[in-house]
């Protein structure tokens, strides 16, 4: 920090712990509320040298101005170096609101090496100024002149180049293992401190026959509490005359006992000088004598250049601690001189816990997590919980796939669509996709919720890492067919070769275990639907899978800007969809693509891409019968009966349209033909969002409802035919 600030002509001042402890007692406040000159106070939550834990209360004291590290007016910000602390202890940032918190995952898990993070408080992020930029951090820049616009979010602005994404994947396994083996960070804190306290007490009690101590321990505490001391013991070994034995010799001996020690100054020269009594002049003298950081020069003129450190992690055991103590006893004492310390009861040797007590106090495994304190509220569509069970909704089972199917669906018949003809703008088909990336559930009339069609994409299948599966990775998802029964409030899931299985539509608030998942960079609260459906899915896919549902009391907000008719105070809610609440496609657009695909091979006797097949590939919620192809891209908003929707933009397609939704087989022709005819981005269909949806009474979408589009201001105006018959059809 000093070198960084020095380059910007900013003064840096070293502060000793004693200065802060004195300021804490005196509560010296010299801040001037009118002075906004920014200052940054940096300190570690835990010393990586000695394990001393400095008060987290300093964060609030310094930021509020009640305590000043240096007597200068201004506004204080706090950087809390939590790397050592969070390796074995929880840290609640909602209580201790530091502005910047660097931490190390390597110190928590031991793997991946070199991976850490900087947590930045959102309130402080706008103050950060970057003096350079690397790949991926610029919104725009020029090579020929000094023009550079950084990306908006602090993450995109500061993560230069390619991050260690393969290492990042390993973090999921690390956190899961930590939780599974220990039950959480609070248990790790108690476990590691107990081991450190035991070892410290035994180590400090070791004496030579002449009464001289075997070790000199460098500590600011008596290991009385994990609040003031972490699981680190720093020491030097002494001979019976009180002379320090160099850390290099101790390290070599330890290796013979299969014990790994850290030695030196641990990249913490300040603590090393303070505890070992090394002056600035001595450091310079040691350097002149040939000592550099990290070498084996442990003594210069009989004075130590560093020390020995042992630390405990969640995987450490009492046997590990005793093995270390046996090593010290074996190399410095006759075994009989110190063996009683390892076998004594806590009262006899002032050792806090015997082996059996440690093991019983810190169980090896615990329940991974207890039920969330947030009891699950009613579903996002709360109005439906108050309706009678006989909800007026009509569901159609998805028809059996037929490669040459040309007959009309019940939806088309209900809409009064002329077979093969192009009528006015009406809804011809309605689909919802209860499980993200799984088969469609076709209906003729369906209730709306605040997130879109009720239960549309409320569930998703995840792998054993909790990562959402899509048809890109697992095309057979389209063979999973969900059916929703609103009266019985269940979802029945079917697949070829599998017995049907039922899943309740709503979670059991007493048993639901809330966890976090990710959908399109958004974090969402979800819950696991249970082992029964997990086993069912795992058997079908041949690998571990889980079904999770978006928590009903969690709202995922759309990142799109407000529509012109939407009040600024309201935010559109999303289910587990990618972009928007609804996706609409126009049959005329599908028909044009259908003709292009099927005329490319006129000699083929069997229609390669039937209309029904093409429509299913685009996985839309609302299918309309338009008058011309791709006219929907010129719409600004639409009305369907009494409901109004804002068109939020086109749907940019990916290779998922290549997957036949009836077989799971891939065919590149659809995407290739789209890319040939649509140019640039392959757009097909448009996204819709509610505008001012009132759910005080039940609302429905129905097949046969008239669709009234409003053109964009710059769009070419054309006649939109309608008839009295269709105007009378309302939702």
From TrEMBL:
What keywords would UniProt list here? Molybdenum cofactor biosynthesis, Pyridoxal phosphate, Transferase
**What does it catalyze?**
Mo-molybdopterin + L-cysteine + AH2 = thio-Mo-molybdopterin + L-alanine + A + H2O
Top enzyme category: transferase
Required cofactor(s)? pyridoxal 5'-phosphate
Q: Which domain of life is it from?
A: Eukaryota
Might you give the EC number(s) for this enzyme? Answer: 2.8.1.9
Q: Where are the transmembrane segments?
A: none
List of catalytic residues: 267
Q: List every position bearing N6-(pyridoxal phosphate)lysine.
A: 107
Q: Where is the MOSC domain?
A: 556-710
Keyword Cytoplasm (UniProt):
no
Q: What is the stated purpose of this protein?
A: Sulfurates the molybdenum cofactor. Sulfation of molybdenum is essential for xanthine dehydrogenase (XDH) and aldehyde oxidase (ADO) enzymes in which molybdenum cofactor is liganded by 1 oxygen and 1 sulfur atom in active form.
**Record family assignment:** Belongs to the class-V pyridoxal-phosphate-dependent aminotransferase family. MOCOS subfamily.
This protein is called what? Answer: Molybdenum cofactor sulfurase
């Amino acid at each position: 920090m000093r070198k960084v600030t020095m380059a910007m002509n900013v003064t840096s001042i070293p502060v000793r712990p004693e200065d802060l402890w004195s300021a804490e007692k005196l509560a010296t406040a010299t801040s001037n509320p009118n002075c906004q000159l920014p200052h940054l106070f940096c300190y570690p939550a835990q010393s990586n040298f000695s394990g001393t834990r400095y008060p987290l209360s300093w964060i609030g004291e310094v930021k509020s101005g009640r305590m000043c590290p240096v007597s200068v007016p201004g506004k204080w910000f706090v950087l809390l170096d939590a790397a050592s602390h969070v390796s074995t202890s929880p840290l609640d940032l909602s209580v201790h609101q530091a502005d910047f918190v660097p931490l190390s995952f390597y110190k928590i898990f031991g793997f991946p090496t070199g991976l850490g993070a900087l947590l930045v408080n959102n309130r402080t992020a706008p103050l950060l100024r970057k003096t350079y930029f690397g790949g991926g951090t610029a919104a725009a820049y020029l090579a020929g002149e000094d023009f550079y616009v950084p990306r908006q979010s602090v993450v995109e602005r500061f993560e230069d180049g390619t991050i260690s994404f393969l290492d990042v994947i390993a973090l999921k396994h690390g956190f899961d293992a930590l939780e599974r083996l220990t039950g959480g960070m609070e248990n790790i804190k108690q476990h590691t401190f107990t081991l450190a306290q035991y070892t410290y007490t035994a180590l400090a009690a070791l004496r030579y026959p002449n009464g001289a101590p075997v070790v000199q321990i460098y500590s600011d505490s008596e290991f009385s509490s994990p609040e003031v001391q972490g699981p680190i013991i720093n020491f030097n070994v002494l001979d019976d005359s009180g002379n320090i034995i160099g850390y290099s010799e101790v390290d070599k001996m330890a290796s013979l006992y299969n014990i790994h020690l850290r030695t030196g100054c641990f990249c913490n020269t300040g603590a090393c000088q303070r505890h070992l009594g090394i002056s600035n002049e001595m450091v310079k003298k040691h350097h002149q004598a040939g000592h550099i950081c990290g070498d084996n020069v442990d003594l210069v003129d009989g004075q130590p250049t560093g020390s020995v450190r042992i630390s405990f992690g969640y995987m450490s055991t009492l046997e590990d601690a005793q093995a270390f103590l046996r090593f010290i006893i074996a190399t410095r004492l006759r075994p009989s001189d110190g063996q009683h310390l390892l076998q004594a009861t806590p009262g006899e040797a002032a050792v806090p816990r015997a082996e059996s007590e440690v093991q019983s106090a810190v169980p090896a495994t615990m329940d991974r997590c207890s039920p969330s304190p947030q009891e699950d509220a009613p579903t996002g569509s709360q109005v439906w919980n108050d309706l009678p069970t006989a909800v007026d909704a009509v569901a159609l089972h998805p028809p059996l796939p037929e490669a040459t199917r040309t007959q009309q669906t019940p939806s088309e018949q209900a809409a009064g669509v002329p077979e093969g003809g192009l009528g006015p703008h009406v809804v011809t088909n309605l689909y919802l996709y209860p499980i993200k990336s799984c088969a469609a559930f076709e209906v003729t009339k369906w209730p709306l919720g605040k997130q879109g069609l009720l239960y549309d994409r409320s569930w998703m299948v995840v792998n054993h890492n909790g990562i959402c599966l899509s048809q890109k990775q697992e095309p057979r998802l389209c063979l999973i067919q969900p059916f929703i029964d609103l009266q019985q409030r269940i979802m029945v899931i079917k697949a070829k070769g599998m017995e049907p299985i039922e899943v309740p539509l709503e979670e059991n608030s007493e048993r639901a275990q809330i966890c976090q998942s990710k959908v399109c960079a958004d974090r969402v609260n979800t819950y696991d639907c249970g082992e029964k459906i997990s086993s069912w899915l795992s058997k079908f896919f041949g690998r571990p899978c889980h079904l999770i549902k978006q928590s009903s009391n969690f709202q995922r907000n759309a990142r799109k800007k407000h529509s012109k008719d939407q009040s600024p105070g309201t935010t559109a809610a999303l289910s587990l969809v990618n972009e928007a609440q609804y996706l609409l496609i126009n049959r005329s657009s599908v028909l044009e693509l259908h003709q292009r695909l099927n005329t490319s091979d006129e000699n083929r006797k069997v229609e390669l891409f039937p209309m029904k097949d093409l429509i299913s590939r685009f996985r839309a919620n609302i299918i309309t019968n338009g008058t011309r192809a791709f006219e929907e891209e010129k719409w600004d908003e639409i009305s369907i009966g009494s409901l109004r929707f804002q068109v939020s933009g086109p749907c940019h397609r990916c290779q998922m349209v290549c997957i036949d939704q009836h077989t799971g087989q891939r065919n590149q022709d659809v995407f290739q033909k789209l890319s040939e005819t649509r140019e640039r981005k392959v757009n097909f269909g448009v996204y819709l969002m509610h505008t001012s949806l009132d759910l005080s009474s039940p609302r429905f979408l129905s097949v046969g409802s008239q669709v009234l589009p409003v053109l964009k201001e710059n769009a070419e105006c054309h006649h939109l035919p309608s008839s009295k018959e269709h105007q009378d059809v309302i939702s």
